[in-house]
Automatic annotation (TrEMBL):
This is Uncharacterized protein. It comes from the Bacteria. Keywords: Membrane, Transmembrane, Transmembrane helix. The chain crosses the membrane at residues 6-25, 37-65, 85-108.
Length: 221
């Protein structure tokens, strides 16, 4: 049983690699749990071998033209654990899993499935991340006002990067002007600033184009 588990782990190693890539470059407030990693690794592992199989069949069809097509040994092993499997197949499936991870991440980040569901009027859910990430990920999210009522300050700047977890939300702005919150008096300017708040405490507004301060001076319009 232990040897079988090791073999299963080797076979689905490509799926794990693809899942790790997808998890690292997608936006989500909560880290993936063991169950989600397991499901993604299983599905992406199968997709890695399926993609490898399609490439192999195309090569056979156009360059070898065999009397009978050959299939990957991994399929026999999945159906019968006593069958042999090839470590070379595991290697090439792992190679295939890297671009697959990027493709899956792109589908998630660009919400292709959600957009398709919305187009078909199946669902109007925007995605899995919260509205903080959704708001800042929008294409027109560029220059913003960040209101800090507790410090009586307003930050005007360009979104450089942002991050969040279950307890805090972080935001980095560049080309920043700091104003008074109540009187809008300009206090000072800095090239870059890091802001951190507890979840839900940020008040962020898009800057209307006619109100741009730094962009008019620096030619970023």
């Amino acid at each position: 049983m232990t040897e079988f588990a090791v073999l299963i782990g080797l076979i689905f190693f490509p799926g794990l690699i693809s899942a790790v890539i997808s998890e690292r470059i997608t936006t989500h407030a909560k880290p993936w749990g063991v169950l989600k990693y397991g499901i993604y690794s299983f599905v992406l592992g199968l997709l890695s071998y399926t993609g490898l199989q399609m490439i192999d069949l195309i090569v056979q069809a156009f360059f070898i033209i065999p009397d009978e097509y050959e299939y990957l040994l991994v399929w026999n092993f999945i159906l019968d654990s006593t069958s042999k499997f090839s470590m070379l197949e595991v290697f090439w499936a792992t190679v295939f899993s890297v671009p697959l991870g990027f493709v899956v991440a792109a589908i998630i980040n660009h919400k292709i499935i959600n957009k398709l569901a919305s187009f078909l009027h199946v669902s109007f859910k925007y995605g899995d991340e919260n509205l903080f990430s959704y708001f800042l990920n929008a294409r027109d999210a560029d220059w913003v006002y960040v209101r800090d009522q507790s410090r009586n300050l307003t930050y005007e700047g360009r979104i450089l990067s942002f991050s969040e977890n279950q307890s805090i939300q972080e935001l980095v702005l560049c080309d920043v002007i700091v104003y008074g919150y109540e009187d809008s008096q300009e206090y000072y300017s800095v090239p870059k600033i890091y802001l951190s708040k507890k979840v839900g405490e940020f008040l962020i507004e898009y800057v209307p184009k006619e109100n741009f301060s730094k962009t008019k001076e620096s030619g970023h319009e």
